[in-house]
C-alpha cells in the first residue's frame, strides 16, 4: 500500500517514539535493537529510507520497497532474529515522498506476557529499552523484572516468607482492619475466623502443597506487618512509604507535613493507607464540600476524595515493592502526585480505555477490595479521570520512567478552561458561535489554541468520551468552521482556523497561574534527602526525569542570576511544574515545527540554567538531535548563552536564554 504523506515530514524529527534509519544497503542491523527498545518501552515508529542530518530529516528512499518488505517480514518471523513478532500487516506501510519510497513501521508496546522482546537468542544480551537519548541495552536485573511480570498465575506478593510467623504481624493493624471490614460487611463469614485462617482467605498466609512450607506471604506482611519485620533482609528490605505536604508559604520550609517510616508508628501499608486517607479527608485546602445530613455531619465522600483514595490504592497494589524509591504521595498547592516503583503492566492507552485488569499484587488488591477500595474491573484510572473531568480540572497524566523503574500519576487541580484562551476563542469566532458548543467541543478548541494543534489520541487522554465520539467531535468542529484538518489516518491532526493563539497570549496565561520563582537553588547542599542512596530521595535520576531539580534555577558559577530573568514565586515544585507546562506544546506531540521547538527551548532556559539532559527530558526529545540541530543554532545566534563559554564541550555545560530573547 502506498500513501501520499509528504506533509507529515515537514516538522518530523527523531525522538523517544520516532526513529529514522537509512536503508540503502537493505535492512539496517540497528533496526532490531530499536524494534526491541520500542516494544519494551512504549512503542514507536521506525522510518526506513530517511536519514537524520543537521538540516533535518532527509528522504533518501529505498530502491526496492517490495523486496525490502519481503526481507522485513521474513526476518521478523525468524526466531533467530527476534523472539516476538508484534506486528500486523497494516503496521507496515510504504510511503511515497518526493518520488522516493519509505517504509513506515509502527511498533506497539509489548504486553506483559510478551516482554522482554529481544534480539537474537539471549534475552540478557539482546533486550533493549528506549529513553530520550536513544536505545539502551537492558541490565540483567531489568530483564529479570520483565520475566517476573510475565506470569499472571503467580503474583509477586504471594511468596511465602520462611522463618516468619504471626509474631511478625501488628495486632492493632489486624484488629483495625477487621473492624473496618465489619463496619462495611457485618455478617461476612471471614470475620469469625482465627487470625491465620482470616489471613489465608485474604492471601496474607499460605501453605505450599508441594513442599509443605507454610507462613506469611509478602502481601500479608506488607499489609499488616511490623515495620522491623517488613524491612528485614529476607522480606522487603527496600520497603518505603512517604507522604509529603508542600503547602507552606515559606519557601525555606521543605514540608508542611510529612508521614514517613520514622519509628513512631508501625509503617505497614494498612496504617499508611488509613493515615493518608484521613489527611486527604481533612484537607481543607481542597475546597471540595462534603454532603451533610440534617445534624451537620458528613455523609459519604466526594468524587474527588474517592478519586484520590483510588489513586493511593493503585500505587500500593501495583508497586514493585522490591524496587527503588518506595511509595511517595505528594500534596502540592495545585496538584497531587502518586509515585511507585515498577513499570506499567498495560500501556497508557489500555489503561485509559479500561476494561482490562492487570495487577502486580493480587492479594493486596483483595485486601483493599474488602475495605471497598481498589478496582478489579480495570476502570480505576477511568474513574479518576471522570472525577477530575467533573471538576473541570486538567486531565490526570501518567508517566513511566526507567532506571530506576517508576510510575507517577499527576492529578492537577487547575482549570481546563483558562479564561484568557476562552476570551481569545470567543473574540476570534464570536460569542454566539462559541456559546452553542458543548463542553467537550470547547475543551478541544482550548487545547488546539494552547498547544497549536490537537489529535484524537491527545483528546483521549483528556476527555472521557470514546475514540469514535472524539472523531465525531473533531469532524463536527471542522464542519462548523472552527478547526482545519491536516493529514490522514494515524497522521491526522487539527489546528484552529486562523492559526494558533499568539505567544503573548500564552505568556498571559502562564503569568496568571500561581507559580514560583526559578532563581533559587533547588537542592540544599548537604541535605540528606539529596543523597543518591537516601531512603527519602526523589527517586528520579536527572537523565530520566523530565526535569532535573538539582540543575534548574541555580545561578551560574561565574555570575548572579541574570537581570531580566523570569521571576515570581518560588517553590522548587512550582518551578518544576512551570517548566513542564512550558514544555507541553512540544513534549506532548511527536511532530512540531522547528521554530516552535526553539522558542520552547528559549522559554525553558529563560527560567535559569538547564543542561542538555534537562532540556531533552522536559521536551521528550533525543538529546543529540536537540544539541546538533537546535541548541547549537541558538547558541550561534546569541539567543542562548553558555555557562562555561570558555569550554563549549564542558561536561557540566548548561544553557540560559540571553536577556531580551524571549520577550
TrEMBL record:
<dbReference type="GO" id="GO:0016787">
    <property type="term" value="F:hydrolase activity"/>
</dbReference>
<dbReference type="Pfam" id="PF04326">
    <property type="entry name" value="SLFN_AlbA_2"/>
</dbReference>
<keyword id="KW-0378">Hydrolase</keyword>
<feature type="domain" description="Schlafen AlbA-2">
    <location>
        <begin position="14"/>
        <end position="117"/>
    </location>
</feature>
<dbReference type="Pfam" id="PF13749">
    <property type="entry name" value="HATPase_c_4"/>
</dbReference>
<feature type="compositionally biased region" description="Basic and acidic residues">
    <location>
        <begin position="552"/>
        <end position="562"/>
    </location>
</feature>
<dbReference type="InterPro" id="IPR007421">
    <property type="entry name" value="Schlafen_AlbA_2_dom"/>
</dbReference>
<protein>
    <submittedName>
        <fullName>ATPase family protein associated with various cellular activitie</fullName>
        <ecNumber>3.6.4.12</ecNumber>
    </submittedName>
</protein>
<dbReference type="InterPro" id="IPR038461">
    <property type="entry name" value="Schlafen_AlbA_2_dom_sf"/>
</dbReference>
<feature type="region of interest" description="Disordered">
    <location>
        <begin position="517"/>
        <end position="573"/>
    </location>
</feature>
<dbReference type="InterPro" id="IPR038475">
    <property type="entry name" value="RecG_C_sf"/>
</dbReference>
<dbReference type="GO" id="GO:0003678">
    <property type="term" value="F:DNA helicase activity"/>
</dbReference>
Amino acid at each position: 500500500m502506498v500513501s501520499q504523506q509528504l506533509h507529515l515530514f515537514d516538522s518530523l524529527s527523531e525522538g523517544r517514539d520516532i526513529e529514522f534509519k537509512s536503508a540503502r544497503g537493505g535492512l539496517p542491523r540497528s533496526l532490531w535493537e530499536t524494534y526491541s527498545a520500542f516494544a519494551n518501552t512504549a512503542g514507536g515508529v521506525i522510518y526506513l529510507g530517511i536519514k537524520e542530518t543537521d538540516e533535518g530529516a532527509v528522504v533518501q528512499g529505498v530502491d526496492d520497497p517490495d523486496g525490502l518488505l519481503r526481507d522485513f517480514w521474513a526476518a521478523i518471523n525468524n526466531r533467530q532474529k527476534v523472539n516476538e513478532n508484534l506486528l500486523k500487516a497494516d503496521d507496515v506501510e510504504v510511503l511515497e515522498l518526493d518520488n522516493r519510497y519509505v517504509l513506515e513501521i509502527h511498533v506497539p508496546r509489548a504486553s506483559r506476557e510478551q516482554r522482554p522482546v529481544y534480539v537474537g537468542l539471549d534475552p540478557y544480551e539482546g533486550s533493549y529499552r528506549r529513553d530520550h537519548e536513544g536505545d539502551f541495552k537492558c541490565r540483567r536485573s531489568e530483564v529479570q523484572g520483565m520475566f517476573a511480570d510475565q506470569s499472571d498465575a503467580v503474583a509477586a506478593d504471594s511468596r511465602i516468607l520462611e522463618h516468619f510467623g504471626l509474631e511478625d504481624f501488628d495486632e492493632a493493624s489486624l484488629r483495625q482492619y477487621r473492624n473496618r471490614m465489619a463496619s462495611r460487611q457485618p455478617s461476612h463469614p471471614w470475620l469469625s475466623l482465627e487470625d491465620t485462617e482470616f489471613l489465608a482467605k485474604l492471601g496474607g498466609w499460605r501453605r505450599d502443597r508441594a513442599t509443605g512450607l507454610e507462613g506469611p506471604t509478602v502481601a500479608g506482611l506488607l499489609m499488616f506487618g511490623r515495620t522491623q519485620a517488613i524491612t528485614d533482609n529476607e522480606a522487603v528490605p527496600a520497603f518505603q512509604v512517604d507522604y509529603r505536604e508542600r503547602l507552606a508559604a515559606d519557601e525555606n520550609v521543605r514540608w508542611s507535613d510529612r508521614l514517613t517510616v520514622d519509628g513512631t508508628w508501625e509503617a505497614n501499608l494498612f496504617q499508611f493507607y488509613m493515615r493518608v486517607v484521613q489527611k486527604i479527608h481533612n484537607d481543607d485546602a481542597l475546597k471540595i464540600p462534603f454532603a451533610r445530613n440534617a445534624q451537620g455531619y458528613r455523609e459519604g465522600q466526594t468524587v474527588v476524595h474517592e478519586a484520590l483514595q483510588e489513586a493511593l490504592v493503585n500505587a500500593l497494589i501495583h508497586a514493585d515493592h522490591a524496587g527503588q524509591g518506595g511509595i511517595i504521595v505528594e500534596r502540592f498547592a495545585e496538584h497531587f502526585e502518586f509515585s511507585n516503583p515498577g513499570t506499567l503492566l498495560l500501556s497508557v492507552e489500555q489503561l485509559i480505555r479500561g476494561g482490562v485488569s492487570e495487577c502486580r499484587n493480587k492479594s493486596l488488591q483483595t485486601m483493599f477490595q474488602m475495605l471497598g477500595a481498589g478496582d478489579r474491573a480495570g476502570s480505576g484510572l477511568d474513574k479518576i479521570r471522570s472525577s477530575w473531568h467533573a471538576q473541570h480540572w486538567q486531565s490526570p497524566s501518567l508517566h513511566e520512567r526507567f532506571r530506576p523503574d517508576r510510575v507517577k500519576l499527576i492529578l492537577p487541580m487547575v482549570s481546563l478552561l483558562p479564561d484568557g484562551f476562552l476570551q481569545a476563542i470567543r473574540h476570534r469566532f464570536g460569542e454566539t458561535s462559541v456559546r452553542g458548543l458543548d463542553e467537550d467541543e470547547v475543551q478541544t478548541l482550548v487545547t488546539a489554541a494552547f498547544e497549536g494543534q490537537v489529535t484524537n489520541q491527545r483528546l483521549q487522554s483528556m476527555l472521557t468520551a470514546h475514540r469514535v465520539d472524539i472523531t465525531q467531535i473533531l469532524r463536527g468542529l471542522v464542519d462548523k468552521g472552527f478547526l482545519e484538518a491536516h493529514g490522514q489516518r494515524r497522521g491526522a491532526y487539527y489546528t484552529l482556523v486562523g492559526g494558533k493563539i499568539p505567544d503573548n497570549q500564552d505568556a498571559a496565561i502562564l503569568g496568571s497561574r500561581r507559580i514560583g520563582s526559578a532563581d533559587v537553588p533547588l537542592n540544599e547542599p548537604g541535605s540528606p534527602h539529596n543523597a543518591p542512596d537516601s531512603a527519602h530521595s526523589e527517586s528520579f535520576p536527572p537523565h530520566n526525569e523530565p526535569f532535573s531539580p538539582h540543575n534548574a534555577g541555580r545561578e551560574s558559577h561565574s555570575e548572579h542570576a541574570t537581570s531580566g530573568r523570569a521571576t515570581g514565586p518560588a517553590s522548587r515544585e512550582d518551578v518544576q511544574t512551570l517548566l513542564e507546562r512550558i514544555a507541553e506544546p512540544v513534549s506532548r506531540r511527536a511532530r512540531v515545527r522547528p521554530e516552535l521547538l526553539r522558542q520552547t527551548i528559549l522559554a525553558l532556559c529563560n527560567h535559569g540554567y538547564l543542561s542538555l539532559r534537562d532540556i531533552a527530558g522536559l521536551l521528550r526529545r533525543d538529546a543529540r538531535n536537540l544539541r546538533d540541530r537546535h541548541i547549537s543554532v541558538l547558541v550561534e545566534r546569541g539567543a542562548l548563552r553558555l555557562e562555561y563559554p570558555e569550554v563549549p564541550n564542558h561536561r557540566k555545560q548548561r544553557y540560559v536564554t540571553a536577556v531580551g530573547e524571549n520577550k
